[in-house]
Design goal:
The protein is an alpha+beta fold and 116 residues long. The chain has one domain: Phosphoribosyl-aminoimidazole Synthetase, Chain A, domain 2 (Alpha-Beta Complex), CATH 3.90.650. The protein is 28% helix and 17% strand. It contains 3 helices and 4 strands. Strand 3 and strand 4 form a beta hairpin.
Length: 116
């Protein structure tokens, strides 16, 4: 498990992949994002993948356990969604967006700093 608060989801996935020696494919359309967050990001030209992600938790687990964990979380009224898969390290970090695989953006500082 990894807390992606500072640096956002992209930084959290990058850190998780580094320590596990893997790459990752992330499905952009599967990532829950509040409408208010989308509007604020658009207004301030902020990429939500690099924006502070307070309250989120990345969980890497054996694929055969995914449905079980999602079901357990749902019983506790916790939103839990499979957003991607870890891959071979050589595949690096990629984002599946509108059916196309592209390089996933990474961020040296949290996107919130554009507003502060």
């Amino acid at each position: 498990m990894h807390d992606p608060t500072e640096g956002g989801l992209a930084t959290g996935i990058l850190e998780l992949a580094k320590v596990s020696g893997t790459g990752a494919i992330v499905h952009a359309e599967k990532i829950p994002c509040y409408e208010e967050t989308k509007q604020i990001c658009k207004l301030f030209n902020i990429n939500p993948f690099g924006l502070i992600s307070s309250g989120a938790l990345l969980i890497a687990l054996d694929p055969k356990d995914t449905k079980k964990v999602i079901t357990i979380m749902a019983k506790q009224d916790i939103v839990c969604t499979q957003i991607g898969n870890l891959t071979k390290k050589s595949e690096r970090l990629r984002l599946l967006k509108r059916g196309k695989l592209v390089k996933m953006s990474t961020f040296t500082v949290d996107e919130i700093t554009k507003v502060l």
